[in-house]
Amino acid sequence: MHKILLTTAVMAVPAMAEVSDGKVKIGILNDQSGVYADFGGKNSVEAAKMAIEDFGGKVLDAPIELVSADHQNKPDIASNIARQWYDTDQVDTIMDLTTSSVGLAVQALSLDKKKITINTGAATTDLTGKACTPYGFHWAYDTHMLAVGTGGALVKEGGDSWFFLTADYAFGYSLEEQTSNVVKEHGGTVVGTVRHPLATTDFSSFLLQAQSSGAKVIGLANAGLDTQNAIKQAAEFGITAGGQKLAALLFSIAEVHGLGVEAAQGLTLTESFYWNRNPESAAFGKRFFERTGAMPNMVHAGTYSAVTQYLKAVQAAGTDETEAVAKKLHEMPVDDVFAQGGKVGPNGRLIKDAYLMEVKAPADVKEDWDYYKVLATIPGDQAFLDPAKSGCPLVK
Amino acid sequence: MTMIFGVPLQALMGQLLVGLINGSFYALLSLGLAIIFGLLRVINFAHGAQYMLGAFAALLLLTVGGVNYWFALILAPLIVGLFAAVIERTMLSRLYKLDPLYGLLFTFGLALAIEGTFRYFYGASGKPYAPPPQLTGAVNLGFMFLPVYRGWVVIASLAVCIASWVLIEKTKLGAYLRAATENPVLVQAFGVNVPLLLTLTYALGAGLAAFAGVLAAPVYQVSPLMGSNLIIIVFAVVVVGGMGSILGAIVTGYLLGVVEGLTKVFYPEASNIVIFVIMAIVLILRPAGLFGKEA
C-alpha cells in the first residue's frame, strides 16, 4: 500500500519538476541602440511580450519570464551576456540575435551550453548551413531568400549587370555571394563590387564607383541605416535618374518608414511578412502598432512566431529540457500569423513563403505604413535552400 | 583615358571633390571642438550630440514650425547655442576647477543622455530632411555629377571656417578670448567678464556643430546616431591638427577628408581606419600635432 502511494506521488511531481528552476525564461538579445535598432530592437522585445501574453503567461503551469539586452552588434559583448544569462540567470533560450556575426557566435556558444536559439534577426545562411547545430533555429528570413527574391526578380526584368555595395562583414559577404549566384544563374553578370565599413555615413565615393561602372543594377548588400543613407545619396548623385536601378537587398518596412516613401518609392525588396497582406496580419499589425507606434516588420512578426512556437514545443514536450523541446520544434508544423503551413528542416531552417514587394508611390499610399504592393509570393521551397543542399553536417 | 594606379583620372577627380565635401564637415566640427578645447580646456564629447541637435532642430523647425532651410541655418545654431550656454552656466562651469577628466566625463554623459532621448522618440532610423528647392539637382562637371547641394556645403563651410578664424585671431573680442585662456585672473583684473566669455565660447562651439548639423540634414538621414558616428573621426582630426589649434583644425579637416576619400577608391576596407593610422603616425613624430605649439 505504502509502495503504491509513493509511486503515485513520484509520478505526480514531474509536471512541475520538468520545468527547470520552476519557470521558462526567454531572452531577447539584439541591437537596441545602433544601426539595426529599428530592424529588431525594442519592438522585437515588445513582440515577444505580446506572444507571452497571448499564450497566457504560463506554460505547464510555470510562469514565463522575459529578459532583454543590447548587444551593440558586437559578438564578444553578445557572448558575454549570453553566457551570463545561461550560467547564472537561468535563461532557457535566446532569440532575435540580429547581426550575423553575433548570431553565429551565440549559436555556437549555445551548442556548448546545450541551449536553444531561435534566430529571427540575422541573415546569414551559415546559421543553418556549415555552422548548423541541433539546437539552433533560423526563423524569419535569410540571405538566400533575399537573393532569390530581389535578385531573381530584377534580373528577370532586364537588370542583367550588377555592381555591389557590400557591408564589410559576414552578412554582407553572404548576401553578395548568394545574390551574385542568382544573378549569374539567370544569365546576368557582376561587373564590380566595393566593400564599405559597417555604419558608414557617406556613401558618395562608393556610389560614384558604382555609377562609373555602368552596371544596370546597384545591389545594396547592407542593412539598416547604411542602406537608408546609400539610397538617399544615390538620388542626390542622380544615379536613379540616370537609369541605374537600386536593389535594397535587405530592407524592411521599418527602414522604409524612416526613409520616407518619397525617397523609397519604386524600390523592390523581399520580406517574409507584410502587415497589410491579409485580414489576420492586419489585425496583428494594428495590435502591435497600438503598443509600439510602429507596424511590425518580418523580424518583429518572426520573433512573435518564434516565441509562440517555442512555448508550444515546451507544452508538447511536457518539459523545457533542451533535447526534448528541440525535437518538438523540428517536428511540429508552424501555423500562426507569421507562417502558414511552415515546416522546420533538419538543419533548423523554418521554411515558409516570402513576398516580393514594391514600395508604392506616395500618391498610392492610402494610410500610414501602407507602403507595399505585393508583386509575388515566393514559395518556401524556392525562397529557402533545400536542407539537403545547405551544407549542414547534420543533414545526411 | 589617363590612369593613375589603375584608377581612371576622371574617377580620381570625382573622389577628390567628394573628399573635400566630407572634409567640410570635419573642418566645421573640429573647428568648434578646437575652439572649446583651446579656450575652455574642456574636451567636448557632446559635440556629436550638438551636431545631431542642429539637424533635428532644422527638422523640427520645418515640420512643426514650417520654418524653411535658410532660416533654420541661422535659427538652429542659435537655439543649440542657447541650450549649450545654459548647460555651460548651470553645470559645466562648476567643473573648470577640477581635473579636465571631469569635463570629458560630463560631456560624454550629456551626449549619451541627449542621444538616448532622441532615440526614444525617433528610433535609430530617424527622419529624412529634403534639400531646399533652390539647391536640388546636379551639375555635370564632365568628370562627375556634382549635386548642387554638396557644392553649397563646401562654400558655406569654408566661409564659416574663415569667419570663425578671423573672429578669433583678428578681432578685439578674439583677443580677449585668447588672453583669457592665457591668464584668466589678469584679464579679469582689467575689467573683462571672463565667465561670460567662456559661456560665449562654448555656445559658439556648439553653434558651429549645429550649423554643420543643419548642413548635413539634407545629405544624411537625420538620425540620433548621426553624431556618434562622426565624433570619433573629428576627435582624430583635432589631435592630428594639434589640440586647440584653430587653423590646424580647419586645414586638417579638409586634408583628412581628401585622404579618406582617396582611401575609399584604392582600399575601401581601410577607409574607416586610415584617419586613425595617420593620427598614430602624427602622434609618434609630432606629439603636439601638425599645427600645435610644442608645449
TrEMBL record, chain A:
**Family annotation (Pfam families):** Peripla_BP_6 (PF13458)
Give the source's domain of life in one word: Bacteria
Give the UniProt keywords, A-Z: Amino-acid transport, Signal, Transport
GO:BP terms for this protein? Answer: amino acid transport
- Residue ranges annotated for the Leucine-binding protein domain, each copy included: 23-360
Q: Which CDD domains does the UniProt entry name for this protein?
A: PBP1_SBP-like (cd06327)
Instruction: Tell me the Gene3D superfamilies matching this sequence.
Output: 3.40.50.2300
Q: Which family does it belong to?
A: Belongs to the leucine-binding protein family.
Give the protein's recorded name: ABC transporter substrate-binding protein
Organism of provenance: Paracoccus limosus
TrEMBL record, chain B:
Q: Which UniProt keywords apply?
A: Amino-acid transport, Cell membrane, Membrane, Transmembrane, Transmembrane helix, Transport
Tell me a Gene Ontology molecular-function term this record carries: transmembrane transporter activity
Where in or outside the cell?
Answer: Cell membrane
- Organism domain of life: Bacteria
Q: Name one GO biological process term.
A: amino acid transport
Question: Transmembrane stretches, by residue range?
Answer: 12-37, 44-63, 69-88, 100-122, 149-168, 200-220, 232-259, 265-285
Cellular compartments per GO CC: plasma membrane
What is the topology of this protein in the membrane according to its UniProt annotation?
Multi-pass membrane protein
The record's CDD domains line, in alphabetical order, gives: TM_PBP1_LivH_like
UniProt family annotation: Belongs to the binding-protein-dependent transport system permease family. LivHM subfamily.
Primary localization = membrane
Query: This protein is called what?
Result: Branched-chain amino acid ABC transporter permease
